[in-house]
Amino acid sequence: MAIKKFQISKILIPYDFSETAALSLEHAVHMAKLHKAEIVLMHVVESASFTSAIAHAFSKGYEKDVEGESTEKLKELARKIHSETSVTVSVKTYIGRIYKKIVNAATDIGADIIVMGTHGTSGYERFSVGTNTAKVVSEANCPVLSVQTHAKKVGFKKIVLPVDESPSSRQKVNYALEMARHYGSHVYILGLINFNNEENKRKFKIKVEQVEEWLQKHDVSCEIGYVTGDNLAKMTMEYSEKVDADLVVIMTEQEFLITGFFLGTWATQVVNHSKIPVMTVHPEPVSGDKISTGY
Questions:
Q1: Rounded distance between C-alpha atoms, residue 133 and residue 117, angstroms
Q2: Domain holding 249: CATH number?
Q3: Does 109 lie in the same domain as 39?
Q4: Does the structure show a pLDDT above 80 at 271?
Q5: Which of 98, 180, 183, 203 lies 20 to 30 Å from 55 when distance is taken between CA atoms?
Q6: Domain for residue 143, yes or no?
Q7: Is 74 within the bounds of a domain?
Q8: Contact predicate 278/271, CB 8 Å
Q9: Three-class SS state of 180
């Protein structure tokens, strides 16, 4: 079976000089050292829209000034990181729509992962997809690691890997596997049950046990847990907090066939509300129940 291996050699960090950006940078530097990867620091000066020609010309001059200042600050930060860690760091500054520039930059530089801070929202019932982080997660071609200010710990010793009954759900297993290998993590395989049919439950548990066997085959410490309910996001986050997890690995479109949402209500809620860093992965196309890349 062909296996899609996840390797990290280039990390893109959107940096807005905020507290969450600084925290995401800590995570990225630690990741770069473990994977012997290089870092690309980027800042986006959001372009303003003005109707008058005079205001437009003024805004362009202002944006260029800010772009220059941001570039110098990024270069200073890059030099500091390199001198302290020997990690190779390059910088890029853009003017435009934030999430679009991040997505395009990731493609242009061939980023293996984007690490970025998110301010999130409050309350499980809010399905906001308007944040830059949620839009990047939805559109980026590579995995995205989103970090909120609650996540003070750097490094991932406990990874939660939620598995549902959707055809693509298990595709993220290899991503969790590679992260666990590099970080020396214990993986909590979380079977999410939101159906009542006993025969389906039996078949589902067999699939979850196959994930456990695959991780154990690759010398990754793991265990299985099950939760039952209707709100997959809430179930995932509550379980993650219960086991004091450091990272949750989810799919971005795994709910598409069920909910009709592009990003999915589960993914949206987890990215916006999780106090624990979240790594989101795009699934490969699937045919029926067959997983195209294996796990």
A1: 8
A2: 3.40.50.620
A3: yes
A4: yes
A5: 98
A6: no
A7: yes
A8: yes
A9: helix
Spatial CA neighbour of 161 closest among 254, 25, 268, 293: 254
Strand partners, 278: 146, 248
Residue at 64 is within a domain? yes
Statement to judge: residues 165 and 51 lie in one domain: no
If you search the block for the tokens 């049919």, which residue do you land on?
A: 197
The whole-model pTM stands at 0.83
Helix (H) or strand (E) holding 75: helix 53-85
* Among 233, 23, 228, 46, CA closest to 128: 233
For the CA atoms of the chain, what is the radius of gyration? 20
If you write DSSP's letter for every residue of 10-56 in order, what string do you get? EEEEE--SSHHHHHHHHHHHHHHHHHT-EEEEEEEEEPP--SSHHHH
Domain extent for 232: 151-281
Reported as a single tens digit per residue, the pLDDT across 105-136 is 999 999 999 999 886 444 333 333 347 888 89
Percent with pLDDT over 70 in the chain? 79
Q: Is residue 144 part of a domain?
A: no
Question: pLDDT-based confidence at 285, cuts 50/70/90?
Answer: low
Residues 160 and 225 in one domain: yes
- Report the pLDDT value the prediction gives residue 269, as an integer from 0 to 100: 79
Residue 295 exposure: Cα atoms within 13 Å on the Cβ side: 26
Does one domain contain both 184 and 247?
yes
Q: Which residue has the higher pLDDT, 35 or 20?
A: 35
Residue where one domain finishes, among candidates 117, 134, 162: 117
- Counted domains in the chain: 2
pLDDT confidence of residue 18: 86
Q: Is the pLDDT of residue 92 over 80?
A: yes
Measured between alpha carbons, how far is 176 from 161 in angstroms, rounded to an integer? 7
pLDDT digits (tens, 9 = 90+) for 135-163: 898 889 999 999 887 666 788 999 999 99
Tokens of 92: 């890029």
Looking at residue 179, its pLDDT comes to 94
